[in-house]
Amino acid sequence: MSRAPVAGVDDARKAAGPSFPDEDATSGASVADPAGGTRERLLAAAFAITAEGGYGAASVGAIASRAGVAAGTLYRHFASKGELFVVLFRRVCGREVVAMRRAAEDVASGPERIVAVLDTFARRALQHPRLAWALLAEPLDPLVEAERLAYRRAYRALLSELLRSAVDDGALPEQDPDLTAAALVGAVGEALVGPLAPGADVDATALLPELRALVSRAIGTAVPR
Amino acid sequence: MSRAPVAGVDDARKAAGPSFPDEDATSGASVADPAGGTRERLLAAAFAITAEGGYGAASVGAIASRAGVAAGTLYRHFASKGELFVVLFRRVCGREVVAMRRAAEDVASGPERIVAVLDTFARRALQHPRLAWALLAEPLDPLVEAERLAYRRAYRALLSELLRSAVDDGALPEQDPDLTAAALVGAVGEALVGPLAPGADVDATALLPELRALVSRAIGTAVPR
Amino acid sequence: MSRAPVAGVDDARKAAGPSFPDEDATSGASVADPAGGTRERLLAAAFAITAEGGYGAASVGAIASRAGVAAGTLYRHFASKGELFVVLFRRVCGREVVAMRRAAEDVASGPERIVAVLDTFARRALQHPRLAWALLAEPLDPLVEAERLAYRRAYRALLSELLRSAVDDGALPEQDPDLTAAALVGAVGEALVGPLAPGADVDATALLPELRALVSRAIGTAVPR
Amino acid sequence: MSRAPVAGVDDARKAAGPSFPDEDATSGASVADPAGGTRERLLAAAFAITAEGGYGAASVGAIASRAGVAAGTLYRHFASKGELFVVLFRRVCGREVVAMRRAAEDVASGPERIVAVLDTFARRALQHPRLAWALLAEPLDPLVEAERLAYRRAYRALLSELLRSAVDDGALPEQDPDLTAAALVGAVGEALVGPLAPGADVDATALLPELRALVSRAIGTAVPR
DNA sequence: AATGAATGAGTTTTCATTCAT
DNA sequence: TATGAATGAAAACTCATTCAT
C-alpha cells in the first residue's frame, strides 16, 4: 500500500501545470524574484502537483523534477520542504481572503454580503478542487499546519464579523457567529469538494445558485413561504 | 519533515483500546470470524489507533503490536493494509448510517427528522473526534478513499431522501436535497471536528443546540421574525 | 573533497573482518543474541569498519553491507546508528577497563601498578590502532561522545585512584593525580596510535619497555642517576 | 545523526574573526598575495571558523560567506577545500614550531629547554583550544591529514633533537628521544585540550605549573628523594 | 495459522564542486 | 576574477510487504 499516490506526476503536463490563479499583471513579482525564476518555478510546480494529487504527491523529488531542477536546488530557495509550503500557503490563502473581502465590499447589506463572500469562496474552490481540499483539510507538515490554521481563522473571522454586525443590525436572527461561520465554510467545502474529488463529471457551477440559497437560509435571512 | 505525530501509540492501553461503539450482542460476527479472533483483534486495534492518532499513526507494525500479533500475521487476514481499512471503514460507517436512520425513525415530522439525524451524527462525531476526522476528511489510501466516497454517498442519500419527502410534503422550501445534504454534513463536521472546531478545552456539547438551530434554518424550516 | 574515506570498504574482507578482541568462550553471548545473529554481525561489521577506516567510514550502508544485510535491517536491531555505536563502545571500552583493572590487581606495590596498567592499555591499543584512535579521539555522534567521555573518565579514575594512593603512601611525589592520569593516557595514546606513532613498518611492540620507563619517570618513581 | 554542531557560524563576527596569531609585520605576504587579497581573506575565514567550531563547521559556503565572497570564488584560489586547509595547516603549524623553537633559544640548559618548549606549546594551545583540537586530533581530509603528520613530525623532531642533545650531555637519562617527544606532545594535548581536559569553567592556566613538573619528571630531570 | 527478521524503494536533507555569465 | 545557481551523490531513516521457518 503506497502511502502517496505519485502516479501520473511525471507523465502529466511537464511544461507548466496550472498557472497560479489570479497571477495578474499587478502581481508582486519583484526583480529579485522574477516570474520565471527557479524559486517561482518551484512554487508553481508545488502548486500544480498539490492541485493534482494533494500534499502526499508533492515529494521534494517530484516538485524539483516538475520544476526542471535537481532536488538539491530546492534547498537553495527554501530552508525546507515545509518552508516552501508555508510560502505557497500564505500566497494562495492570502489571495483567497483578499478575494472574499473584495466580494464583501461590493455588496451593501449584511446578509447578502455573507452570501457573496461564500459564493466567492465556492467559485474559487471549484476552480481547483484538489487544491482546495489540500488547503482546507489535508494533514500537513506542522509548520504548514500552523499557517493553515491562521488562514482558516482569517476565513472565519471575516465571516464572523459580517455575521455579527448583521445580527446586531437586526438583519439576522440571534446566533453564534463563530459557529455559523465555521459551519458555512465546512458546508461549502463539503458540498463542492466532496462530490468533485473523485469524478468531475458533475457541472458543479450549476450548484452555485442552490448553494447561495442554502447559505441564505442557514444564516437566517427572512424567507417568506 | 515528519508526516504525522505517532506519539503514544505503543504505550497506550495495550490490552484493548476503546471498544467498538455499538458492539452489541446482535453484531454480525460470524462463526468463521469469532469476536475474539485475530481478524477482529486487528480491526479493533486499527480502530483504536486511528481513533487516537489518526490514519498516520496506524502503521502495520502498530496495529499488529496492539492486536498482540506479529506484523506478518496481518497479511493472513487482509490482502493489504488498505483492505483492512476498507473493511473497517465499511463497518464503522455502516454503523453510523444505521444510527442516523434509527434517529430518523424516532421522529414523526419531516423537518425535525433531518435535524434529529444530523444531531445524531454530531453527537457521535463528538464521542470520537479524531476518528470522525479520519472518516470524514483525512486523506487515505486510494482503496479506502473509494470506500469513504461510498459512505459519504450513503450519508447524503439518507439525508437527501428525508429532505426530498419533506419538500414534497411542503414542509420545506424547494431545494436541491443532495446539495443540502452534503452541505449539512460538511457544516456539522467542520463546526465540530474540523480545524476550526474549538479545542478540547471547550465543551463542544454546548454547541449542539446552536447547531440544531443552524440546521433548522439551513433546511428552510419556517423561521419567525 | 570527499568527507569520509569510504574506499576499500566493500572490497575488503567481506566475510568477517577482525573478530572482536577477547571474544573468548566465556563471552556473554545470550540465547536471545546468538553470536551469529544479525545484531552481532552488525556490531562485528561496525567494529571491523571502524578499526579499518574510522568512524567516518562506518556509514549505515557500509555496515549493513559488510554484515550481509540490507540497510533497513540495522534499524530492527538498533534505534539509530548512534545507538549501535553506543553498544559497541560500551562493549569495547568496558573490556579495556576490565583488562586494565585486572592488570592492577596482579601487581602489589603502587608505582608498578600504574606502570602495569598503562602497559596493558598500550599493548591492547597496539592490537587495533585505528580502532584505538577512534575510541580515544575521533569526533562522534553526541550520543556516542557521551559514552566515550564516560569511559575516558573510567580510565582516568582508575589511574587517578592508583596514583593518589601511591602518593599518600609516600611512594610517589606530590602531584595532581587527575592531571597525571590524563596526561599519561594522552602520552601512551599518542606514542603508540596517534599520528606521531611509527608507521606499520615499525614493530611498535619494541617500544613498550621504553614506554614503561617513561611512565615510571613521569609519575615520579625514584630514579637514580 | 548530526556529525558536527555548526551553531553560531553565520551570526558570528562577520567582519573579521580572530586575527591570525603572530600576524606580525614581517609576515610572508607577497605582492602577488596581498594581505587584504581574497586568498588571504579566505584563509583567515577558514582559520576563524575552525577555531570556533572545528573542521566540521568549516564548510565551503561558510568560509566563503565569512570571507565576503561567493562559494565558487574559493576555487579560483585553491584547487579544492582540502588544498586550502593544507595551506592553512602549513602556515599555522609552522608558526607553532617557530614559537617553540624561539622558546628553546631563550633557555640555556638542556632539560629546561624541553620544559620551556612544551610550556609554550601548552600556553598557545590554551589560547585557541578548539583550534588546537582541530590541529592535533580532529579527523580531516586525507590531504590535510598528511600535512598534519608533517607538522607533528616537526614538533617531534624539535623536541627529539633537544632531548637527544640533553641525553648526550648526560643531563638526562638514556631514553628513546622520538618516543619521549611523541608521548610528551600527547600528554600535553590530552591534559589540556582532549576530551579529558577540564571544561571551560576551570582555569586551565592553573594546570601549567603542574604540567611543567610532570614534563620534568617524564624526561628524567633529577628528582629528589 | 503465525512468526518476525529481512527487504528495498522511498523519504528529506547536505555540501563540495562546476560552469555559464 | 568573480559570481551564485545548479548539481548530484551521498547521508540517515521509515515502513508496507514478503517468506522461510
UniProtKB/TrEMBL annotation, chains A, B, C, D:
Q: What SUPFAM superfamilies would the database entry show?
A: Homeodomain-like, Tetracyclin repressor-like, C-terminal domain
Q: Which stretches are labeled DNA-binding?
A: 59-78
Q: What is this protein called?
A: TetR/AcrR family transcriptional regulator
Cross-referenced InterPro entries: DNA-bd_HTH_TetR-type_CS (IPR023772), Homeodomain-like_sf (IPR009057), HTH-type_TetR-like_transc_reg (IPR050109), HTH_TetR (IPR001647), KstR2_TetR_C (IPR041490), Tet_transcr_reg_TetR-rel_C_sf (IPR036271)
The protein's organism comes out as: Patulibacter brassicae
Residues covered by region (Disordered): 1-34
Q: Which UniProt keywords apply?
A: DNA-binding
The protein's matches in PANTHER family, at most eight in alphabetical order, are given as:
HTH-TYPE TRANSCRIPTIONAL REGULATOR PKSA, HTH-TYPE TRANSCRIPTIONAL REGULATOR RUTR
Q: A Pfam family this protein belongs to?
A: TetR_N
**Start and end residues of each HTH tetR-type domain:** 36-96
Reply yes or no: does the keyword Cell inner membrane apply: no
